[in-house]
Design goal:
Blueprint: H1 6-26, H2 28-45, E1 53-57, H3 63-72, E2 77-82, H4 85-97, E3 103-107, E4 120-126, H5 135-145, E5 146-157, H6 164-176, H7 198-205, E6 209-217, E7 220-222, H8 225-235, H9 237-243, H10 248-262, E8 266-267, E9 270-273, E10 276-283
Parallel strand pairs: 1-2, 1-4, 2-3, 4-5
Antiparallel strand pairs: 5-10, 6-10, 7-9, 8-9
The chain binds S-adenosylmethionine.
């Protein structure tokens, strides 16, 4: 079911990620390997360097938060924010276990960060902005939190054709749930910011200067399709949300169908799911 109001949408998002928090955290090793190169490109684009104060938006269980904390070093600081309090607890715990004392957390919707003007040297958001039904508002909040001259960078999935596994998962889940196909660019959905030119335009509208965009190939490599399905089943909250209303047996039939389709990406080198990410960055101009 599509929630009727923005408030209901946010409440459903928060609940879904609270439920998936443990699963996403358990998958940190796989996620780290999948996104390592793209994450470094995102932090380079935000000019993250030692001593900086960095805002991490939709930080999840904090995998990229820890990368940022290591880059800024003990003289710097990271504020990890997320709409889900449960997933942020994992981020805080992971930072503590890694001995990183320069990480703080703040539960907040990216569209309403409620932070003081001009406090951060850089801002980053990895695979979170597409879940905001009003991403322009979220970008305005990020720009407000940056010091003049500070940089923001965002990673999202690019076009549907370059991310075929996501298309398979969504279309199969919708069909099993008896729901009609969805516009892949529906605001707040997984591929919503993959619409060509959209995210760059939103950066401009949010008041960023020097907007730059690039695409990064990020194939997901796992031993088998079953391992990818395990990742999705434990952590991919948008797919779990679609199947939520079904009886367990019907959910199981949907998972089996997805796995059969995903086997097309198995090769002698293991399962390689093509993914392409879009990296967009910009600078808060001086007044
Ligand atoms: C795919 S996970 C990515 C987490 C982390 N950035 C990473 O790459 O591992 C998406 C995250 O976005 C968060 N999220 C979704 N909608 C949000 C919103 N409106 N404001 C803040 N966080 C949001 C979820 O709670 C979840 O932690």
């Amino acid at each position: 079911m599509t929630p009727a109001s923005p408030e209901q949408f946010k409440a459903a998002t928060r609940l879904a990620w609270d439920k998936s928090a443990g699963g996403w955290n358990r998958q940190t090793g796989n996620i780290h390997a999948w996104l390592a190169e793209a994450t470094q490109a995102m932090l380079d684009a935000a000019h993250v360097a030692p001593g900086m104060r960095v805002l991490d938006i939709a930080a999840g269980a904090g995998d990229q938060t820890l990368d940022i904390a290591r880059r800024v070093g003990p003289a710097g600081q990271v504020l990890a924010t997320d709409i889900s309090a449960s997933i942020l607890e994992f981020a805080a715990d992971n930072a503590r276990r890694a001995g990183l004392l320069n990480v703080k957390t703040h539960v907040a919707d990216a569209e309403a960060l409620d932070l003081e003007d001009g406090q951060f040297d850089a801002a980053a958001c990895r695979l979170g902005l597409m879940f905001c039904p009003a991403p322009l508002q979220a970008l305005r909040q990020a720009r407000h939190a940056l010091k003049p001259g500070g940089h923001a960078s965002v990673l999202v999935f690019s076009e549907p054709a370059a991310n075929p596994c996501i298309g398979i998962l969504i279309s199969t889940a919708l069909r099993h749930a008896g729901l009609p196909p969805r516009d892949p660019f529906q605001p707040g959905s997984l591929l919503s910011l993959g619409k060509p030119g959209l995210l760059e335009a939103l950066f401009g509208q949010a008041g960023f200067a020097g907007v730059a965009a690039s695409r990064i190939a990020a194939p997901f490599r796992l031993p088998s399709a079953a391992d990818y399905l395990d990742f999705v089943r434990t952590s991919a909250s948008p797919i779990l949300q679609i199947l939520d209303s079904l009886e367990l047996a019907a959910q199981e039939a949907a998972w089996q169908d997805m796995q059969a389709k995903l086997q097309a990406f198995e090769s002698p080198d293991g399962w390689i799911g093509p993914n392409e990410l879009l990296l967009v960055s910009g600078t808060r101009p001086a007044p």
